[in-house]
Every structure is written in structure tokens, then in C-alpha cells.
Amino acid sequence: MENTTAILWRQEDTLADRKIFVVEADDPSLVNLPNRALFLHSDFAFIPAEQRGPWPQVPATANLVVVILPKSRERLELVLTALSESISEATELWLVGPSKGGIKGALKQLKPFAQAGVVDLVDTARHCRIYVAMLEPRKEKDLEAFGQQWRHGENTYISYPGVFSHGRLDEGTALLLEQLPTDFRGKTALDMGCGSGVITLELAQRGAKVTASDVSATAVAATQATLALNQQEADVQVADLYGELSSEFDYIVTNPPFHEGITRTTAVTEALIHKAPSYLKAGGELWLVANHGLPYEPILRQSFNYLERVATNNRFVVWRARRA
Length: 324
Fold this sequence. Notes:
Largest sheet: 7 strands, mixed
Helix content: 10-25%
Distance between the termini: 42 Å
CATH superfamily of the largest domain: Vaccinia Virus protein VP39
Radius of gyration: 21 Å
Order of helices and strands: HHEEEEHEHEEEEHEHEHEEEEHEHEE
Shape: elongated
Strand order of the largest sheet: 3-2-1-4-5-7-6
Strand content: 25-35%
Number of strands: 18
CATH topology of the largest domain: Rossmann fold
CATH architecture of the largest domain: 3-Layer(aba) Sandwich
Number of helices: 9
Structural class: alpha/beta
CATH class of the largest domain: Alpha Beta
Number of domains: 2
């Protein structure tokens, strides 16, 4: 159980009689909160949420909105805007987050959305805080207002707050694209962790039939927007790693994450590598870019028959692994 969930449990007498909408849910155990009715919104595929996506909408019957503090201030601004756009009358909102995770600074963002600018501290425990305000309705913006367009070469990309490398080309992705084959005609490819669709778009433009996957629904929305802007197509899905995919691919291409929130972890990428051969055709290849020092080489050697260090610079290394 996350600390933010634990501090909410301290309010169980209050929550038990409320119809609660939890926004930006990041902990599966949130489903067990005391409630009269409970609705979850999450950006993540591994959360059993009623709403999934970048633009949460307050259910008509909810009388309490609980926002789990997002990692970025841009993302919080988007979430608060979406919520205020979806209500017709002032609605109680709790903002929950780590005391050292930026929640004090987040109060400055919350106050303009609060009735009379009033925000009160409800509780402090488990290194977290809960603030309460009455969220006022407004009708000013939509998701597109938060989209950030940027260019690289001949392509234009769109990303939204919360997406990896928001508004810019990641250096590791750039190195990976430089090394990939230029002709994928007649090949199938999976972009695992598609983000704002940089790799997906490049694969499609190089002739591949592309499937793109990301655990983040906001990333999927960004990838779809990038593809549409550049008049390309791909099958894009929200999924925890391979999800329900049953296809085998000629290529899996990825710039995988090594953080969950602010915690550094390689577990997701290790699982991605171990499972990759099951999703590759005979002779199929995994192309992966990673920061120096991440322990992927032995895992790649264990999982694949052939491994090559294709390129390296002062920060990143590109691996090419082939299935027998």
C-alpha cells in the first residue's frame, strides 16, 4: 500500500459515506477504500479503473474528488482543468501527496481552481498531506490546449503532460533511430513504450506494419495524435507490457523506462526482455536503447541467441538481440 493510500485510510469514517472519484490512481489497493460508491481514474493499464486517459471527467453522482498528486506540475494543471471543466457546481476536492514530493508547491496551482481561493490542510501522516478545497466549475480549455507540438527533421510530434520526454526528442531515442534499419517494408514491428509516438512514426514511415503499446493512456493518446498529424497509421494500445498481444513480430523496438514514479527500478525492462522471444518470429530482433550502467546485458544474453552492441556514446548504448 502506498503512503498516499494509507493516509486516506485515516479518513475512513468520512469516506465511508461519500461517493468518491479517485483521480490519477497509482495504487491497486485504492479499490479497497471505504466508500458509499467508488470510481477510479488512472493513466496506468495496471490499475482497475473505470476511466483511463489524459482527461478525467467527474461522474455525475460523485460528491468527493480525490486527486493523487501527479509527478509534474504540468500534469496537475491538466488534471485540475479537466475536472473543473466537467462539473456544473462546486465540488469538494482533496489533494493527496508526499510532503517532500512537491505538494506544498502544488497548493499554488490548486488555489486558482478553489472557491474563494481557500485551501485547508486536513491531515499529515505517513510523510504525506491531504489538502481540501471546493473545486469551482469553469469552461475554458480542452485536452488540445495542453498538447505541445515539436519538430525533428521532417516530422511533427505531439505530447501531453505526463508523457515521457514531454516536448522534446530524448537523446537515447535519437541514437536508437540512427541505428535502426531504414527499410522495414513487409515487416511487422512492436514499439514497446511508445510515449509520444516518435519510434512508432519512424517505423511506419520506414514501411513497417506497426503495433504500439504503452502502460500510459496519455502516451497512447499522444501517439495517436502524432500519427494522425503525420498521416500515418498503427495499431495503438494501452497495456501493461505485452498485455493481450498474441501476435509475433519481426522486430520489437524500445526505449524502456527505469523509473516507477521517483523510484529507480529495472524490473519492468527485465520482464520485457525475458518475454520478448515469445513475441518474436524466428530470426526476429529486439532493438533496445538504455543508459550505461543498467544491468541488461546478462539478461539479454540469457534470453537471446545473438547479442550485439550496435552503438554507444557517453550516455547510452543500443543493443540488438536476435532470436534463433
